[in-house]
Amino acid sequence: MESHRSHNSVLWIVVLTSSIICVHLLTTSAEWLGDLSDYELASLDNPDILDEPQRRASKFNHFTMSDHGDVYVGAVNWLYRLNSSLKMIQNVSTCNDSRPDSAIPCHLTNNYNKILVVDSTRPNSLITCGGVYDGICQLRQLQDIRNVMMESYPYVGGFEDASTVSLIAPGRGGNQMMYVAVTYTGKNVEPGGRFQAISRKSIQNYPFLSAPEIDTILFRVATEVFVINYVAAFDFKGFTYFVALQKEDLNSAQFVSKINRVCQDGPNLDAYTEITLQCSGSDGSVYSLVQAAHFGPAGPDLAASLGLHADEQVLYAVFTRNQGAPGTSDVPIDHSALCVYRMTDILAAFR
Ligand SMILES: *[C@@H]1O[C@H](CO)[C@@H](O)[C@H](O)[C@H]1NC(C)=O
Ligand SMILES: *[C@@H]1O[C@H](CO)[C@@H](O)[C@H](O)[C@H]1NC(C)=O
Ligand SMILES: *[C@@H]1O[C@H](CO)[C@@H](O)[C@H](O)[C@H]1NC(C)=O
Q1: Containing H/E element for 331?
Q2: Which ligand is nearest to the CA of 106?
């Protein structure tokens, strides 16, 4: 894992569009250069890489932090706990070939970390989900990740290359629930052909991380094959938001980036709406493909340079251009841009 923030010629050029609204938010640019030696670095050797480079086992999947400042890393077949100086203090394999539900030796399939969330509703608890063992999750102790306290209902995260984003946020009646959005790949389908694209899972009731049908947005496989590549999830004032890369609609060939949202207090997830996110360069070039996003306050430096309040909530999103004419493919090329959206403008676009 590496951490750095040396951005060259970062673009701060932002356009937010929906089908009806087109708002130009900020048109200015900033450049930051940082020295890598100013930052803590950690590198972890994954013994499962062996000598087969094509075996994507080195993949770092997720990281999260506890209130104590410890850093948790979910990687293929391994979980790591680092202290706040990024020194590894614990590791645990997520492979267990002795399990009754272990179909194939784990090192052949690889257990991708799909979900890694600190369970803030319980003391000392971390939810980890992998792509093997039917997508079962574990509730582990933050202070001893080897210690599994509980296992979940199956089919929580996606499998292998299915992107999965998740967070804990209020649900029906204000109870904390875990929201999960999973990309359809054709493999991650429940028996019966159901595929839960977005769901919210119970973290307090039994079975752990189960979701009744009212708390899911289902695809019936074979009739609707629509790939939504989720890159981030966040919670803001009564809604859970998902940032995604997808086709514009079922009949479109155009790839666009979107923010989808569901209402937290509704009886179900039917109140699903979306807007399109656009990120354009100063030369008019279109960065169609969102790759990553982070939601948080602007902070004093960015706020000063962009004329915002330091505590104003913004969405940072990294986009790339695509191969071919803008939006005609989802194959990223070597040109990227960081766009920053004010949450107030995103809210306005949803109205
Ligand atoms: C992290 O662990 C290293 C090695 O055990 C130790 O030297 C360092 O002081 C620890 N840092 C913190 C903040 O606890
Ligand atoms: C796990 O930790 C042990 C003890 O520090 C170390 O020897 C081993 O290499 C680590 N394994 C991984 C996969 O990082
Ligand atoms: C592996 O699974 C077996 C069977 O369920 C269980 O008894 C054992 O404790 C597990 N090992 C680890 C390290 O979790």
Answers
A1: none
A2: 3
AA identity, residue 3: S
1-39+226-351 and 42-224 in the same fold: yes
Dist. CA 131 → ligand 3 center (Å): 17
Parse the chain into domains and list their residue ranges. Answer: 1-39+226-351, 42-224
Tokens matching residue 200: 């919210």
What pTM did the predictor assign?
A: 0.85
Sign of CA dihedral 162, 257, 25, 14: positive
Q: 153 C-alpha to center of ligand 3: Å? A: 17
Question: Of the CATH numbers 2.130.10.10, 1.10.10.10, 3.60.40.10, 3.40.50.300, which one belongs to the domain with range 42-224?
Answer: 2.130.10.10
Pocket test for ligand 2, best of 43, 91, 107, 144 (most atoms within 8 A of CB): 91
Q: What is the pLDDT of residues 154-189, one digit of tens each?
A: 888 777 778 899 999 999 888 999 999 998 877 777
Give the number of other Cβ atoms within 10 Å of residue 246's Cβ: 22
Which tokens is 86 given? 């990024």
Q: What is the mean pLDDT of residues 132-142?
A: 89
Band (pLDDT 50/70/90 cuts) for residue 341 is very high
Q: Which of 93, 94, 96 to mutate to test the pocket of ligand 3 (most atoms within 8 A of CB)?
A: 96
Is the model's pLDDT at 274 over the cut of 50? yes
pLDDT of residue 49: 59
CA dist 140 and 151 (Å) reads: 9
Share of the chain above pLDDT 90, in %: 46
What number is the average pLDDT over the span 81-110? 88
The neighbouring-strand residues paired with 73 are: 63, 80
Nearest to 96 by CA among 60, 122, 132, 143: 132
Superfamily of structural domain 1-39+226-351: YVTN repeat-like/Quinoprotein amine dehydrogenase (2.130.10.10)
